[in-house]
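In this section we walk through a basic example: taking a raw amino acid sequence and producing a predicted 3D structure, encoded as discrete structure tokens. The instruction is simple. Fold the sequence below.
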Amino acid sequence: MLKLGDFNTLKIVKRVDFGLYLDGGDEGEVLMPKRYVTPSMQIGDEIEVFIYLDQDERVVATTEKPLAKVGDFAYLEVAWTNQYGAFLKWGPMKDLFCPFREQKQRMETGKSYIVYVKEDEESHRLMATAKVEKFITPLYPTEGGKHGQECSILVWQKTDLGFKVIVDNKYQGQIYDNQVFQPLHTGDCMTAYIDHVRQDGKIDITIQPTGRKHTLDFAEVLLRYLYENNGFCELSDKSPSEIIADRFKVSKKIYKKAIGDLYRRRLITISDDGIKLVTE
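The resulting token sequence is shown next.
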């Protein structure tokens, strides 16, 4: 069965002047327009294609990748609007429709929004909705969520506490302000780390690795900084956390641990004025 709005592996069954026809099983043959065909594609080959509906609502295939597929959360820009809703840029195919009923606020051309891509249950057309809360899994699985576990995040929105994020394209997470050591903006995608899974199923996220390994990694960064800056850094373990974060993009806790590691290795001396590389 074809997965609309997703990637499918289909066999080439026919070549025509305007493209290739692929075996869509019960859905019949699916056209892949000529502009996506390469000389290496031969009848009988299986190729991975993205399946969507063209302007005339016909099922077509493309080898180009969209910015999101069905089941994805994404940050998409509005290409244009009309009396029915907004049309979002999502890659090489036709713009993705977001009707007014699926908007939290009237979307404006040129602005970007966090949306969820889905197949409309009634019309079976692909569409976007800005009411993403309905599609976030409320509880993180109890068997997962180990401290320090790597995950992917999409920055969702700024709050009084920090930033809401969507974790692993599925769950809701929170980055608190005291864990933000670099500029964050809605729509940013990045690797992050689980700090704690709360009883309400939501996840506290940090954008820095945790544990001993990260301390050692940053200790080497700090050591290189000292070599490149005449063996001195005016920031000590008593310096304000904001200044440390601005300079090195790490927390004060990580900075202090790295200083301690370099000191125990007898590579630096520590004073009220800062830290200094030991030269012998």
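Looking at the output, two observations stand out. The radius of gyration is 25 Å. The chain is about 15% helix and 40% strand. In the next section we compare this with other chains.
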